[in-house]
Amino acid sequence: MNKVIVIGSGGAGKSTFSRQLGERTGLPVFHLDALNWRPGWVATPKDEWDELMNKLVRNEAWIIDGNYGRTLDTRLQAADTIIFLDMPTSLCMYRVIKRRVMYHGRTRPDLNEGCPERLDLGFIRWIWSYRRTSRPALLNRLALLKEGQTVIILRSPREVRSYLEQIPVVGRNAL
Length: 175
What we know:
Elements: E1 3-8, H1 14-25, E2 29-31, H2 32-36, E3 37-38, E4 42-43, H3 46-57, E5 62-65, H4 72-78, E6 81-85, H5 89-102, H6 121-129, H7 134-143, E7 150-154, H8 157-165
Parallel strand pairs: 1-5, 1-6, 2-5, 6-7
Antiparallel strand pairs: 3-4
């Protein structure tokens, strides 16, 4: 496991999981939201984003969390491990509302400064419809991956904890 992407609905726990996996493996973690959003919630222009994705996946090792469907194939083709956090809609909704309250008026750790936490109707709709709209297409894409790529689907917080516990801690964090 050297090149890992973590995908799933908003509120699935991608950033937290990626950070914890990075702490255990020693792999560098890249949060796509932090790379994409500039202060004031200004998105990176598409040509710059494409160049950044191509450059990022050429690195020897990484964990990249986030969906960003337009450039997902770039990451899927480069990854050796794909972790899909396939959490229940109710849990995802609870988490994004909790996150909105926790970080009210502040920027959360997986974003750039100048991007205070927000919650809009479009994002809520996307999460609410994720299982019936985005999820089937994603599962189809995962079914087409090449031999040698590992797909791991975690469906509950318990499965996430169990998975992380089986990953040996490397480097200076090992006791």
